[in-house]
């Protein structure tokens, strides 16, 4: 049975598989659940993690709420809450369809960059708060000294992440240039 309102008689998974060759829906579902498990172990809420991974497995990175509910065998209400979370943290965008009230949810192509940037911003907020802790405890106290070391650690990570992202962008731009050179 197709996704509600799709009019195609095929599911979201079928359309994804048709675009790139045959896929085993059981293997895809197993991957979704396995990677979801890793994300939840890292602190990601379960339903948003399932939706995130489902979008990751879609060739278009774009699915409707009905397609997500069908693929994940979950309720539309669950999808709605999970998508709302993903939109709030900037990992998914909602796109309207001209002439329709239906929303498509899309994962940006640079989603991993965005995840690292989100984490880096979180580290920056921690550093600000930790610096206040150093002041409150006194930099010469054992606790203040440990906290100051933590500040240095997160400052280091933040600087390195910024550099890594910049190098990744350069690598991507180089790969794009090489690909366009081969296409000529």
Please, could you describe this protein's structure?
The protein has 184 residues and is mostly helical. It has 2 domains: 12-106, Orthogonal Bundle (Arc Repressor Mutant, subunit A); 111-183. The protein has 7 helices and 3 strands, in the order αααβααββαα. The chain has a 3-stranded antiparallel beta sheet. Strand 2 (93-96) and strand 3 (103-106) form a beta hairpin. Helix 2 (25-41) packs across helix 3 (46-57), helix 3 crosses helix 5 (76-88) and helix 4 (65-72) crosses helix 5 (76-88). It is elongated. The model is unreliable at 1-11 and 13-17 (pLDDT under 50).
Write the layout of secondary structure elements.
Blueprint: H1 12-20, H2 25-41, H3 46-57, E1 62-64, H4 65-72, H5 76-88, E2 93-96, E3 103-106, H6 111-137, H7 142-183
Antiparallel strand pairs: 1-3, 2-3
Produce a short descriptive summary:
The protein is mainly alpha-helical and 184 residues long.
Features:
mainly alpha, 7 helices, 2 domains, disordered N terminus, three-stranded antiparallel β-sheet, 184 residues
CATH architecture of the largest domain: Orthogonal Bundle
Q: At the fourth CATH level, what is the homologous superfamily of the largest domain?
A: Winged helix-like DNA-binding domain superfamily/Winged helix DNA-binding domain
What gyration radius follows from the Cα positions, in whole Å? Answer: 21 Å
Helix and strand content put the structural class at: mainly alpha
Instruction: Please work out how many helical segments DSSP would assign.
Output: 7
Catalogue the unreliable spans.
1-11, 13-17
The biggest sheet amounts to: 3 strands, antiparallel
Return the CATH class of the largest domain: Mainly Alpha
Helix content: 55-70%
Strand content: 5-15%
Succession of helices and strands: HHHEHHEEHH
User: What is the terminal separation in angstroms?
Assistant: 43 Å
């Amino acid at each position: 049975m197709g996704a509600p309102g799709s009019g195609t008689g095929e599911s979201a998974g079928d359309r994804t598989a048709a675009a790139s060759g045959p896929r085993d829906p059981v293997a895809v579902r197993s991957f979704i659940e396995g990677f979801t498990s890793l994300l939840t172990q890292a602190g990601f809420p379960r339903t948003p993690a399932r939706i995130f991974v489902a979008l990751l497995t879609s060739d278009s990175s774009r699915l409707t709420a009905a397609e997500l509910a069908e693929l994940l065998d979950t309720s539309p209400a669950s999808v709605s809450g999970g998508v709302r979370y993903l939109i709030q943290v900037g990992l998914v965008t909602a796109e309207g369809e001209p002439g329709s009230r239906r929303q498509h949810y899309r994962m940006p192509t640079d989603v991993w960059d965005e995840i690292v940037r989100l984490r880096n911003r979180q580290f920056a907020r921690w550093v600000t708060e930790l610096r206040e802790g150093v002041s409150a405890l006194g930099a010469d106290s054992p606790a203040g000294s440990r906290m100051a070391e933590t500040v240095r650690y997160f400052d280091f990570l933040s600087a390195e992440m910024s550099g890594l992202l910049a190098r990744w962008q350069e690598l991507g731009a180089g790969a794009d240039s090489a690909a366009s050179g081969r296409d000529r």
